[in-house]
Design goal:
This protein has 8 helices and no strands. The chain is mainly alpha-helical and about 180 residues long. It folds into 2 domains: about 70 residues, Diphtheria Toxin Repressor, domain 2 (Orthogonal Bundle), CATH 1.10.60; about 70 residues, Diphtheria Toxin Repressor, domain 2 (Orthogonal Bundle), CATH 1.10.60.30. The longest helix has about 40 residues. It is elongated and about 85 Å long. The termini are far apart. The mean pLDDT is about 90.
Length: about 180
C-alpha cells in the first residue's frame, strides 16, 4: 500500500534542507554587509545591476543601526534572487580587494620587522638585508638605524625611525 506522507529515502530529496538554506541566506547577508561597507571604487568594480547598486547606496545612506540592519537584510533578499554565478562574481570581486589588502598588510609587517631588526641588531641585520638586496645603500641605512636608536634612547620624535621605514619600503617595493 502507498503511504502519502512518505517522501522516500533522504538521499533522493532534491531540495536543500532548511538549515542549508539558512546558511546560504546568512552567507548572502554577510556579502551584502561587505558590499555596504566597501568603498565607492570597490563598488564600481563589482558586477551589479543598477537596481542592486542603488540598494547598496541606500543601505550606506541609512545611519540608524536598526534601520541599517533592516536595509541590509532587504539588500540580501534582493541578492538572493540572483543566480549562483552572479553571487559568486560579486564575492570574487570583493575577495580580490581583500586579498590585496592582506598582501599589503603582510608587506608592511615585513618592512616593520626589518626596521626593528636594523635598530636592535645593528650590523648583523644590515649584512643580512644587504645579502637580500645588494643594491641598497649600506651607509645610508646604517646611519638611519643609528639615528633611530639615538632617538629612541633620548625619547625624541621618531623622524629617523619613519625615514628608515620609508627607505626600507622603497627597497622592498622595488623588488616586487
Amino acid at each position: 500500500m502507498h503511504d502519502p506522507y512518505d517522501d522516500g529515502p533522504l538521499d533522493e530529496r532534491l531540495e536543500p534542507s532548511r538549515s542549508q538554506l539558512r546558511r546560504e541566506a546568512l552567507d548572502v547577508f554577510k556579502l551584502a554587509e561587505a558590499l555596504a561597507a566597501s568603498s565607492e571604487a570597490q563598488l564600481a568594480r563589482v558586477p551589479l545591476e543598477d537596481e542592486l547598486r542603488e540598494e547598496v547606496r541606500r543601505t550606506r545612506a541609512t545611519t540608524s543601526h536598526i534601520a541599517r540592519k533592516r536595509q541590509t537584510q532587504f539588500l540580501a533578499k534582493q541578492m538572493r534572487k540572483l543566480d549562483a554565478d552572479a553571487i559568486e562574481a560579486i564575492r570574487t570581486a570583493l575577495g580580490t580587494d581583500r586579498d590585496k589588502a592582506h598582501r599589503e598588510t603582510a608587506a608592511m609587517h615585513r618592512v616593520e620587522t626589518w626596521r626593528e631588526r636594523l635598530i636592535n641588531e645593528g650590523d648583523e641585520a644590515l649584512a643580512e638585508l644587504l645579502s637580500l638586496h645588494p643594491g641598497a645603500d649600506r651607509q645610508h641605512l646604517r646611519q638611519l638605524a643609528r639615528n633611530a636608536q639615538a632617538e629612541r634612547k633620548a625619547d625624541k620624535p621618531p623622524h629617523a625611525f619613519r625615514e628608515l621605514f620609508r627607505e626600507l619600503r622603497g627597497l622592498f617595493d622595488a623588488d616586487s
